Amino acid sequence: MLKVGVLGAGHLGKIHLRLLNQSDKYELIGFYDPDAMNGKRVAEEFGYTYFDNLGKLMDLVDVVDIVTPTLSHFECAKKAMEKGKHIFIEKPITHTLEEADELLALEKEYKVKGQVGHVERFNPAFMSVKDKICNPMFIEAHRLAEFNPRGTDVPVVLDLMIHDIDAILSVVASEVKEIHASGVAVISNSPDIANARIEFENGCVANLTASRISLKNMRKSRFFQRDAYISVDFLEKKVEVVKMKDAPEQPGEFDMILQNAEGIKKQIYFENPDIATNNAILDELETFADAIVNDSVPVVSLKQGTNALRVALKVIESF
């Protein structure tokens, strides 16, 4: 078992503590929180060991799980990596691209592994169809959330849209060519609503909308590719796969047949992939343990987390 320590005991940090404590792949040594009152309160309530010294905790573990505010990600990760510790770091990887690039250099220098907490990669709905998403040419994503003060320290692009940016980058095998975007601040000091059009070198276009002041929650992405339409509902954990194939010479009574202007006939049919029940946060933490033990590349590497941040910052720059 890998010895792990958690930095940050806020809302998400407490979830990580609970899951790591029950995991068969980790031994939870304890946690650090700069707010001593909160740290002691969490320790008393849940029984986890609280460390009031960050360095002392790091010395006792193999893996440091960073669940702190974005502004502190870089300093926490740098300290851990310089001590030769593997790092799991919540998204976005860092506050600036320069910080992310430095972590990539530290990862190589100290021969440690890092994974970024882009949890939607482990959403069972997305996982059930990811292999079916092949050369998409148009993508539309909507991520809408009711207002929550937590997370408003960063623009909605880094808070919400970056989830969809990362997922899209994982299925589009092409470099970004151009970005057009707009954003509006309504309640926060930074944009609360944003829309981005991302054009890729291979011709794929992704249209992304994110809002954190909506009246309802929605997390849907639609992938359009030749002969297939794939819809992923990240919130409800449902998928819809509609595909086309050459129509049979003698269609059945209930076959759905389309015919274009050239007379070419296609049959429409549906697929229903199995969606496994899982805990996405536990899965991302445990696959990171597997990557360390097996010396393999993490599912969401620091490089991929950096690429998602790079695109997200370009979206913000184009406002």
From TrEMBL:
Highest taxon in the source lineage: Bacteria
Transmembrane segments: none
Pfam name, any one: GFO_IDH_MocA
Name this protein carries in UniProt: Gfo/Idh/MocA family oxidoreductase
Gene Ontology molecular function: nucleotide binding
InterPro entries: Gfo/Idh/MocA-like_OxRdtase_N (IPR000683), Gfo/Idh/MocA_Oxidoreductases (IPR051450), GFO_IDH_MocA-like_dom (IPR055170), NAD(P)-bd_dom_sf (IPR036291)
Domain GFO/IDH/MocA-like oxidoreductase positions: 156-216
Domain Gfo/Idh/MocA-like oxidoreductase N-terminal: 2-118
